[in-house]
Structure prediction request, 951 residues.
Amino acid sequence: MKKVLVIGNGMVSYKFCEKLRSRADGNQFEVKVFGEETIPAYDRVHLSEYFSDQSDEKLLMAPRAWYEDNDIELVTGKLVTQIDRENKMIKTHTGEKESYDYLILATGSRAMVPPIEGVNKKGVFVYRTIEDLTQIIDFSRKVKRGAVLGGGLLGLEAAKALMDLKLETQVVEFAPRLMPRQLDEQGSAMLKSKIEALGIEILLNKNTKEIIGNGKLNGLEFTDGTRLDTDMLVISCGIVSRDELAGKAGLETGPRGGFKVNEHMQTNDPDIYAIGEAASFNGMVYGLVAPGYDMAEVVVKRLTGDKEHLFKGADMSTKLKLIGVDVGSFGDALGETPGCVPISFEDKNAGIYKRVNISADRKKLLGGILIGDADDYGMLLQFTKNGMALPPNPEDLILGKRGSAVAGGGMDDLPDSTQICSCEDVSKGEIIQAIKEQEKPDLQQVRKCTGAGTGCGACSPMVGDIYAATLQSMGKVVRKTLCAHFDYTRQELYSLIKVKNVRTFDDLLDEYGTGDGCETCKPAVASLLASIWNDKILKQDTIQDTNDRFLANIQKGGSYSVVPRVPGGEITPDKLIAIGAVAKRYGLYTKITGGQRIDLFGARLNDLPRIWRELIDAGFESGHAYGKALRTVKSCVGSTWCRFGLHDSVSFAIEIENRYKGLRSPHKLKGAVSGCRRECAEAQSKDFGLIATEIGYNLYVCGNGGTNPQHAKLLAGDIDEKTAIKYLDRFLMFYIRTAEPLNRTSVWLNKLEGGIEYLKDVVVNDCLGIGEELEKDMQALIAAYHCEWKEAINDEKMMSRFRHFANVDDYDPTQQFVPMREMKKPADWE
Amino acid sequence: MLVQYKTIKPEEVSAWKMVLNETDFPENGGLCVSVDGLQIAIFKFSRRDEWYATQNLCPHKKQMILSRGLIGAHGEEPKVACPFHKKTFSLKTGKNLNGDECEIATYPVKIKDGKVYVGYA
Ligand code: SRM
Ligand SMILES: Cc1cc2nc3c(=O)[nH]c(=O)nc-3n(C[C@H](O)[C@H](O)[C@H](O)COP(=O)(O)OP(=O)(O)OC[C@H]3O[C@@H](n4cnc5c(N)ncnc54)[C@H](O)[C@@H]3O)c2cc1C
Ligand code: SF4
Ligand code: FES
Prediction:
């Protein structure tokens, strides 16, 4: 057992404890926490709420009993003053010593107090702890006026608090505008007028020279010679990390203070970690709680064995929760990216200012500012963070689509993996899941059980939107989740598998599912894994549908059929003879299929490996007739022989079939290439079809014979072969990524919002900017192709599974065939 | 054919027959063994660290196939799905879980020293 010692008991320290205990109990790690403050960790983000109810308890992250229940020893009111790295010990201000295996520094920060003359005068405060607040409240009772030094996020919050304490309040800012790091001039002017309307006076461009007064302050004197009379002053000029322990212990610090850490959150001593505002990562101290929580996660994962999870920096987007004034600033708010295009909107009357910065190619949202109405903050932040494609008219983002109620995009457009609450790291998917899980859905309950919206609250409107949209969807349609074991759609799982690099069904089930799986989710996930990684199907044979498990189609009576690939339907006499010889030797029924190839029926399980060895020796490969995969690309004879043929449709069909052979997809895929518009290959009834024109090919997609026949639709006209392949790569990959399980391309297109026009936009115009990515993904799959049968017959262990009995070599004695014409058929079932 | 298969309860076992090695089995999957002319499907449910045995015959269309079915769970109930028409059966009780009439026989399995045994009446 290892001993983890945490120094500091603030928000991040608490979160660390919570996360550690969710992954490891007291048998794995002994945990002890030292906090300087007298009460356990509390919610500093909502510190200002202390003004209204003055209750510590309401602010606590968790009551003292929580620590006991979770086997964590908490010592409050003790300042750690020394780290002895050599002996792995710490010492407190009262002399106690404590050993550690791992030391976690979560000492947070203190308010920065600029070196102005007179800062030690009575009546000067900072705004950081509950203690600061009680002092401010006490003092405010005796006075009438209060000023805040610093017009940043915290300063404005402090000003609001002073105003609520019934003081005549001013804000003094050094820069020419409020929140200079987050807002542009127009935005801060709008904010200023809004705050002034609340009754707070704002002084800009003021460089404070001295805090004047005799023992107790009575005003500020500025370098421009003017002065401000006031009775108390709250300093809010930023923060400095509490890295006092660094010096003597020989721990390195960052350029602006803070324990210097790497992406594992390790200081220069690998057993000493720093997290939260105490840490300096890449020279940056993050003064927000969400990055601190991310850091805590990194350390917890590392301690519990996952060393891959790294801290990658964080986003400094903010939404101010000053009552009455909504302020949001996200991404590149000031438009500093070269070539970016700002679009802004101002309504002085309503007090609204919005600005979005669009990338030079008008495809991505870089950042923006929202004043007066920040409802869309969460959505816009997601556009920025996820690099999502913008609507055709980006101004819709801030103006709303004229004539319709929804602003561009809307919650529905966000992928479920989207992080909605960054404080608690809750994704859209998790919120939706929580709603679905409740018998009588209740927004409060959803917040409570997911934690979404309980941090800084910036995401609350989004949580509400998701809640509403989900309920609506529940009334109308059921969410297309996979089954009881996965509350995700196929598309969501596709992303999860890919992004999280999931390789096995069990891993996916452990991480994102519940229970033990079933006959619905196993093959669906198997198909996804195949579509994403193109690994050997037989590696995880027991999650495959029976056809895939034995790489053959099961037939009546439990025999199998064998379909070798015959690309484009072109076959040599030798190969025809080879098929005939194999069929004869094993007594198989043969038939020319509707897919321009030959099916051999009635193979016994024990014979499959032998049959395939012979076929492979004759130059055949698996035809994937058993899989949800590319089947055939039919051809007509085309220009080589046909008097009407415009191009060599056979060669092109063979090329395409060989390109996509083995491609696993949500449902089977069929293609065809016709040499002219007489269309002998029936290309317009295929998932993709090409018809030769005078100058190239017309590419049709999403056609289908089968149960509900549908004609394919034109995706692009008169394109050359190279372009056709490019569009096919994109089209097929986009389908594979987004379709529900067992939806043919036709069904998928029918459900796709925007239909064929949208599909054209994605594939041909690359409106999502993912064209190259899709081509790359396809290239990776093509490169990973292997003939499943060739690999299988060379693997003895796998081949040993191709037996009816595992303990004797017999065929299934109950299997019966009866003669039919000159061949055989299985006995009818009862 | 159907009448030959009868559930044997653990308390009815009079003898155990060793059929295979534990390592012969795929994870979370089944194999068919021949035991005195009967076809028994044995399943290694690795996820739950459990073993089950049933008749190999699917009563729906009388197909000798259940050992090749996908296993999983319906709530807590472990089950196997027939590859032909996806009828599902409880691995514990043999009951059909689609609400159909037919059910299958189940047999006791035990593992000792890496060997897999099926119980006889
Ligand atoms: C062998 C073949 C019939 C034949 O003797 O010609 C055939 C046989 C089967 N078809 Fe087919 N289909 C065959 C061509 C077709 C065609 C024609 C074509 O491809 O041009 C169609 C209509 C075109 C289409 O798919 O859009 C066709 C539409 C279906 C459907 C309906 C699909 C749909 O979207 O509605 C199914 C059912 C399914 O896949 O879910 C199906 C399913 C089946 C299965 C796999 C049913 C099953 O699960 O056992 C049959 C098993 C064949 C086996 O054991 O090998 N088969 N099937 C053809 C094999 C083609 C090949 O070489 O791979
Ligand atoms: C008024 C206010 C409003 C805020 N609003 C927001 C907001 O809206 N959104 C947002 O993201 N963030 C906000 N923040 C910032 C957020 O509160 C901090 O990012 C967060 O609290 C940092 O957590 P921490 O655990 O790193 O540090 P802290 O919460 O500061 O905890 C550190 C603890 O360690 C103790 N400690 C220090 N040194 C020692 C030692 N040697 N021995 C023992 N104990 C020690 C300290 O006393 C303290 O209790 C706000 C902060 C304030 C003050
Ligand atoms: S349709 Fe065109 S290509 Fe097909 S056979 Fe006739 S002419 Fe040839
Ligand atoms: S034969 Fe088993 S379900 Fe039909």
